[in-house]
Amino acid sequence: MQAKIKYEFSGKLWKDESSGGWVFISIPKNISKEIRENLKWQEEGWGRMKASATIKEIKWDTAIWFDTKMNTYLLPVKSEIRKKASLNLNDEIIVNISI
């Protein structure tokens, strides 16, 4: 995937109890607003947008999802990435995403 816009932010890992145990980092609302205003045309079904992410030098292709209840994009962080980066719930981490 060829990235066009890059963002860096920090956030805490949290688990959504209602979604089968998915773990996310919420993208800050100011960044989410900018992404939605400028790149919403790239969204696929359910507010999904292709992205690449980097945490602790571990990079992977993924997608961010717009959550209308939280009014922000969510970055899912699968267990494979959490294990490689030694991440736990509520850890404050620095994230880079490219869209």
Written overview of the protein:
The protein is α+β, with helices and mostly antiparallel strands and about 100 residues long. It has a single domain, classed as Elongation Factor Tu (Ef-tu), domain 3. Helix content is about 15%, strand content about 45%. The protein has helices spanning about 30-40, 80-85, and strands spanning about 5-15, 25, 50-55, 60-65, 70-75, 90-99. A six-stranded antiparallel beta barrel has the order 1-2-5-4-3-6. A hairpin with a 7-residue loop joins strand 1 and strand 2. The radius of gyration is 13 Å and the shape is globular. It starts with 5 loop residues before the first strand and ends with a strand. The mean pLDDT is about 90.
Taking the alpha carbons of the first and last residues, their distance comes to 9 Å
Which architecture per CATH? Beta Barrel
What class do helices, strands and sheet pairing give?
alpha+beta
Q: Write down the CATH topology.
A: Elongation Factor Tu (Ef-tu), domain 3
Strand content: 35-45%
What is the CA-based Rg, rounded?
Answer: 13 Å
Oligomer classification = single chain
Poorly predicted ranges: none
- Tell me the series of helices and strands, N- to C-terminal: EEHEEEHE
Largest sheet: 6 strands, antiparallel, barrel
**E-strand count:** 6
What is the overall number of helices? 2
CATH C-level: Mainly Beta
Q: What shape does the CA trace take?
A: globular
CATH superfamily: AF2212/PG0164-like
Strand order of the largest sheet: 1-2-5-4-3-6
